[in-house]
Amino acid sequence: MKTKQVHLLRRPENIAVEDFILREVELSALQDGQVLVQNLYMSIDPYMRRSMENDGKDLDPWPINDALDGPSIGRVIETRNSKYSVGDIVESMSGWQQYFISNAEDYVPYLAANDALVKRAIGNGAEPMDYLGLLGIASQTAYSAMMCAIKLVPGETVVISSGAGSVGSLACQIAKIHGSRVVTSAGSDAKVAWLKHDLGVDAAFNYKTTPFDVGLRESCPNGIDQVLENASPEHFSACLPLMNFSKNILIAGMVGIYDVGGKVRNIENFEYVLDNFLTIKAHLFMDYLDSYDQFTEDMLNWRCEGKLKQKIHMFEGLESAPEALLALFNGEGRGKIMVKI
Fold this sequence. Notes:
This protein is α/β, with parallel strands linked by helices and 341 residues long. The chain folds into two domains: 2-128 and 311-340, Alpha-Beta Complex (Quinone Oxidoreductase, Chain A, domain 1); 137-286, 3-Layer(aba) Sandwich (Rossmann fold), CATH 3.40.50. The chain contains nine helices and 15 strands. The protein has helices at 47-51, 137-149, 166-177, 189-197, 212-219, 233-239, 271-275, 292-304, 321-327; strands spanning 2-8, 20-26, 35-43, 72-79, 89-92, 99-102, 118-119, 157-160, 181-186, 203-206, 224-229, 243-251, 279-282, 312-316, 336-340. Strands 3, 4, 5, 6, 7, 14 and 15 form a seven-stranded mixed β-sheet that branches. Strands 10-9-8-11-12-13 form a six-stranded parallel β-sheet, sandwiched between helices. Helix 6 links the parallel strand 11 (224-229) and strand 12 (243-251). The longest helix is centred in the middle third of the chain and has 13 residues, at 137-149. It is globular and about 65 Å long.
């Protein structure tokens, strides 16, 4: 049986569609204990840009001219493993390909083998694509930040950067559900309008036309109590003078540096960390995997109740996956980016 895979051709200085190629690959015959999976959807996530580098930063670097890793949801179409039946919906880290053979090890995000599997329940409001979207890794990052890593206090000001992104847009809504005053920013007037009118944030500005320090100062007259940083050193630096005493900054990512070398070179205002006894912590959703069942229940309930919505930017066909990844960094992405395979 043949499958199509997207391979990486080189380690680029700046990402381009031409860094990838679509190839047809022959799969081996299924062995005892193995499962054949047809991928339905794959997720596009910022960490993937870091995986294109030699050191990989978050994970092992992607190989050149071989199968890549990434969150995917698929359907079992053949099985020689008693734990799995034809038709089972399974999640894995074997995106970027149409079909793959799994040894059916137990799945743990980013830690288990790429072909490791976990069954996902369909029904009660959950569809297959939800496990990459509403219930996916970006959503787990947003939920664990707002619900586990910090304490949301009604009326306090929470600043969330990259508010129109997959993590930021959900974090904004979760904070609003719990009575926070939410301030965010995005890279276009259209995204700002969506954040204000559709998601109901209290203040939002276009960072391409309004500098971070100006936009934050105008939007946070009573200072900042909590920050979820997704964007850049510049946004992080602009928050520091506005932080209230003994408050918190979570850093979930800095997508703005991933395609320009991945180095943080320009943090300013750091003296305010000492002056105001701030706590800064890198945020990793895997620290809160024990909250997964509560996470799925809350997210599905909030969506059912109309309190939470997610914008999906769906690309069609495996061949579009490189373009989908590029959309994360060129401003074309709108919400959670996925590929329908």
